[in-house]
């Protein structure tokens, strides 16, 4: 029987971060990376296959750095993990003995419980190059496309489909909630995203529920709850994902049906030799340790790193808990955040103070391509002054500005801390030092505390 | 006699931050902003007047937000502060009584102690629109330009002069040290900047000392210590600046000849009614509290905010000390940093561990305009793991990424802290979550600790 020191099952963000960490920390260990797809796609890059990149093969994570480091990449389906004998059993009858194992099987897209989701040219998004090519082939001749779900995937897919060379005549984005991106972003930033989508030629239909999808063999229309019928050659569904725990359950590893593979803060599962990381693993909130539904590649990468470190370490590292740090770009605007939203603070009855700032993303604002109104909004706990979340809407540096916020939230800094700090500024790259949004937003909160 | 509640003397970064803070915190106070120039230029924007902006009047900070808030802007030269009577005396004989005063008189450019610095068309950079226009008028017909000094101002001026519509045939940048930007940047990033300058058509002459400047009335040549003569129609000198303490000294406020106006951590001067902020004020190092020569607009903005807050506050805010957070862009590359350099760590005999990471600034790297090698270098104290400094070289998001580092340094975070945090990533805006440079650089340092 073939054996390995560490078997990683699942080759996306968590699995790759685990492999990278093992190569860095335990270069003497034999690593096997098991996946059920021939190539690994860049998960967050999938929408860009359809517009900016124009081809599936431009969105592949190359294997060579792993192969060169001696990682054994196995493209097979795993039937079960025989934990008593520490053996992975593949569906072709082959086996692989392991010493430690990392489960990083990711998530499975939700399907809405409606008629017609099984019609031809109705697609969820799977991280499989062949599947993504099938979607591209269907989109190329399409004239009417309906995207169901206005979260990150739906918004980015709709925006990129609008940039296809063979652009469909009608692209509609259907969202149940009053706004796109509403669970992650501040409401006024959602409005910015919607305006950008409209400008890109996407018809944004919020407060709209889908009742059914109709067609003979192939999709023809999408029926809304209010009776409207939308013509559709292709339907793309992006309404969220559930932890993929099938293998874990089959193998007798403790799972929560909704939350995922049960893990400790060190990411150990109910089997001490097995760790879980990424979308398949249970999440705790950074803020209160309660179960969290946030699933992001940034969390997966962090968890993969922590889980892999812990496999052979005396001192076990612990995850800080799921924060929710993300970024997106819609049209000309980038939107990014870390931590809680105003809406979430209200829902949780938190007593918060909000500081805002707006400044040009370059200074002076007369510089070519300056975005005059790059906004930052910081949400602080009133009693302690502690930063709970921050949101950015503006130029392409929004994501890294959100990372300054992410660091501040995770370091549990206060409005006073942020208001006293010094920040790097430059005419072509940031707001002016006097207007710098993090400092000013913190000051604006501070005077309310 | 006219009176005011707060007199601010000096209208650049520190003075404007002070005025903004007073408007925010003490809206009932009467504010007078005194400056000796008709308009305030964006200080860091000065180099861009010559290339990207093309006009001095595009680099002006508008007064209206201050005037609209009732700030009295006085364009006069101050002779002396009569501190006994709390009166500012102007050179036209007028006076202004004050309750509190903020000194933000900035810095004066150094002149090298060589012959010829007083020749026509030999310029230092003053923050005065009329003066900047004179330089532009001289540069427009120039064929041979020599920039003396390879710090930020010199590098940015040379790069922008190379982008003038009436581009001089020869632009030479003369630097005494082995590299441009060497006191602020990592050596290998200095090399990147030099390559970008060369690509922009600037001849970079390092290890070169200027012996004299020659000409009849107007400059004709620059003579180097090795005897070489460089043709020059215009010479721009940017070799640093000294605190402008003339008024403080004339008014009997305690000063250190090299360090500037003496201040406490609360930025109070030897006169309890007078605070000082910005380039004119003494600086302490963020790291050890020792006198520091770092002078940046980001420090000035922070100090102006702190000083203004303290004027009428029971609880006095204290400056964290000068950190050194900056950013620049040379050609296609942006370079940014916060905290100490490897070179400074060596000079101070600090025992440090360095973690580096390199990744594309977008993911996948096949995206249009991706910069394949965006680098981050983090410098940690070995004994404590504490972050002392970080450096970034890559795309335009470098400055905000350096601000994540700035926050981390000022929050005294460790390599372990940074390696466990989650960061916002997006294909169009950052490296991939698995390769994200802050996390990976921290991990790479951690395995050496």
From TrEMBL, chains A, B:
Keywords from the named record: FAD, Flavoprotein
InterPro entries with a match to the protein in the record: FAD-bd_OxRdtase (IPR050260), FAD/NAD-bd_sf (IPR036188), FAD/NAD-binding_dom (IPR023753), FAD/NAD-linked_Rdtase_dimer_sf (IPR016156), Pyr_nucl-diS_OxRdtase_dimer (IPR004099)
Co-factor requirement: FAD
GO molecular function terms attached to this record: oxidoreductase activity
Pyridine nucleotide-disulphide oxidoreductase dimerisation domain segment(s): 334-430
Gene3D superfamilies documented for this protein: 3.30.390.30, FAD/NAD(P)-binding domain
Pfam families xrefs: Pyr_redox_2, Pyr_redox_dim
Segments forming domain FAD/NAD(P)-binding: 5-304
Family statement drawn from the similarity comment of this UniProt entry: Belongs to the class-III pyridine nucleotide-disulfide oxidoreductase family.
Identification of the protein by name: FAD-dependent pyridine nucleotide-disulphide oxidoreductase
């Amino acid at each position: 029987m073939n054996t390995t020191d560490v078997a990683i099952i699942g080759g996306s963000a968590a699995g790759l971060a685990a492999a990278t960490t093992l190569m860095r920390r335990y270069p003497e260990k034999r690593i096997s990376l098991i996946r059920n797809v021939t190539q690994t796609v860049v998960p967050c890059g999938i929408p860009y296959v359809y517009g900016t990149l124009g081809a599936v093969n431009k969105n592949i994570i190359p294997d060579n750095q792993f192969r060169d480091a001696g990682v054994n990449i196995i493209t097979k389906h795993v039937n079960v993990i025989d934990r008593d004998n520490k053996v992975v059993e593949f569906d072709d009858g082959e086996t692989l003995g392991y010493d430690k194992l990392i489960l990083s099987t990711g998530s499975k897209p939700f399907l809405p419980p409606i008629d017609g989701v099984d019609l031809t040219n109705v697609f969820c998004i799977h991280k499989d190059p062949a599947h993504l090519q099938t979607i591209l082939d269907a989109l190329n001749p399409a004239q009417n496309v309906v995207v169901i779900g206005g979260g990150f995937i739906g918004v980015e897919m709709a925006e990129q489909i609008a940039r296809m060379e063979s652009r469909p005549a009608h692209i509609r984005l259907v969202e149940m909630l009053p706004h796109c991106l509403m669970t992650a972003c501040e409401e006024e930033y959602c409005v910015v995203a919607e305006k950008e989508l409209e400008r890109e030629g996407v018809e944004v239909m919020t407060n709209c529920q889908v009742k059914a999808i109709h067609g003979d063999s192939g999709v023809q229309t999408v029926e809304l709850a209010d009776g409207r019928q939308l013509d559709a050659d292709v339907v793309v569904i992006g309404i969220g994902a559930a932890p993929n725990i099938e293998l874990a359950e089959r193998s007798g590893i403790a799972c929560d049906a909704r939350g995922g593979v049960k893990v400790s803060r060190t990411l150990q599962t109910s089997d001490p030799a097995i760790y879980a990381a990424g979308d398949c693993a249970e999440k705790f909130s950074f803020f209160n340790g309660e179960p969290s539904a946030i699933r992001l590649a940034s969390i997966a990468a962090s968890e993969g790193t922590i889980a892999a470190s812990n496999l052979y370490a005396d001192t076990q590292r612990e995850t800080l808990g799921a924060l929710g740090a993300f970024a997106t770009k819609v049209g000309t605007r980038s939107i990014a955040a870390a931590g809680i939203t105003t809406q979430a603070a209200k829902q949780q009855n938190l007593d918060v103070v909000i500081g805002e700032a707006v400044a040009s993303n370059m200074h002076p604002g007369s510089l070519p391509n300056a975005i005059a109104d790059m906004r930052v909004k910081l949400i602080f706990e009133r009693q302690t002054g502690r930063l709970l979340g921050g949101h950015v809407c503006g130029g392409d540096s929004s994501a890294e500005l959100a990372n300054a916020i992410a660091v501040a939230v995770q370091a549990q800094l206060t409005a006073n801390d942020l208001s006293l700090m010094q920040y790097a500024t430059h005419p072509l790259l940031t707001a002016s030092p006097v207007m710098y949004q993090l400092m000013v937003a913190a000051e604006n909160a501070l005077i309310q505390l």
